[in-house]
Amino acid sequence: MSVKPWVIGLTGPFGSGCSLAAKYLEHERGFTLVKLSTVLDEKWKELHPGGAVAPRSDLQALGDDLRKQKGRQILAEIGLEKVGQTTEKIVVDGIRNPGEVDWLRLEFGYRFTLIAVLAPPTIRWDRIGALSYLDRGLTQEDFAEDDRRDSKEDVSFGQQVTACIDQADILVDNSDIKQGEFKQKILDYVDLALGVRSRPAQPWEILMNMAYSASHSSKCLKRHVGAVVVDTAGKVVGVGYNENPIGTKPCMEEPK
């Protein structure tokens, strides 16, 4: 039985740096690049031969329609079909629906790792505002509306980047670090995910793991948030988690 390829998925709000991370993996680590936005672009051109470049809002709507008609995984499925599974390593850029994440995890199991790249709206606007909006006669308000829709649409087949980020195995903050540092972060994490090299867990990683574990102590499903308090030397002085206020019962113990 042939071994399936390693697959790195990239998710995050547009302008955060996912496409840049994908290029690093393509050029520095020999990954085959699959861009889900390219799948949408090709579908758009099929429907509008010779037409102008589609604005992001129209591509968002097209993606929603495809997922509604053919399943939430359809963009990832089409993208992977184009490259096949004979390649050893694949990076999937532009994951925007949890159905894509679920399908990739089912298809590739432990050989799939999801990385979320994060940056605040102000920094993302500075990066892509001129080229993607102002040069096309659009405004920062158009950017904000696209960002809102991209983050959390109300329908299951829509764009739900926030939900994808919640499922990520690795979170990378690309707010204000230099490009070289961001590149090294991406390459280091992917090397770890693929077992190319190993290293001991960093102190902050251990603390975050403790906070995540503590969050599961809450009996209220909407309050799974944990916290670890440390002193200036990094010594743990307290661990806690969110729960209903004293005097009230957790939601799962309330009468139905």
Record keyword descriptors for this entry.
10 helices, 2 domains, single chain, Rossmann fold, 15% strand, five-stranded parallel beta sheet, two-stranded antiparallel sheet, 256 residues, 46% helix, 7 strands, alpha/beta
Explain how this protein is built.
26% of the residues are buried. The chain has two domains: 6-194, 3-Layer(aba) Sandwich (Rossmann fold); 203-253, no CATH class. The chain is α/β, with parallel strands linked by helices and 256 residues long. It has ten helices and seven strands. Helix 1 (18-29) crosses helix 9. The model has no long low-confidence stretch (mean pLDDT 91).
Estimate percent helicity. Answer: 40-55%
Q: How many β strands by DSSP?
A: 7
Strand order of the largest sheet: 2-3-1-4-5
Kindly identify the CATH topology of the largest domain: Rossmann fold
Measured by DSSP, the beta-strand proportion falls in 15-25%
The total tally of domains equals 2
Q: Report how far the terminal alpha carbons are from each other.
A: 50 Å
Uncertain segments: none
Q: Per CATH, which architecture of the largest domain? A: 3-Layer(aba) Sandwich
- Helix count, DSSP H or I runs of 4 or more residues: 10
- Rg (CA only): 20 Å
The largest β sheet comes out as: 5 strands, parallel
Order of helices and strands: EHEHHHEHEHHHEHHEE
Could you name the CATH class of the largest domain? Answer: Alpha Beta
| Mean pLDDT over the full residue set | 91
* Shape call: globular
Structural class: alpha/beta
CATH superfamily of the largest domain: P-loop containing nucleotide triphosphate hydrolases
